[in-house]
Amino acid sequence: MPLDWNGVRLGFAICTELWDWDHACRLSRAGADVLLVPRATPDLGSDVWIAGARALAVRTGCYVLSSNFAYPGAAGFDFEGLSVAADPDGGLLAATCKARPYATVSISVSAARQAKAAYPRYILDKMKEKKGAP
Question: What is the pTM of this model?
Answer without folding.
Answer: 0.87
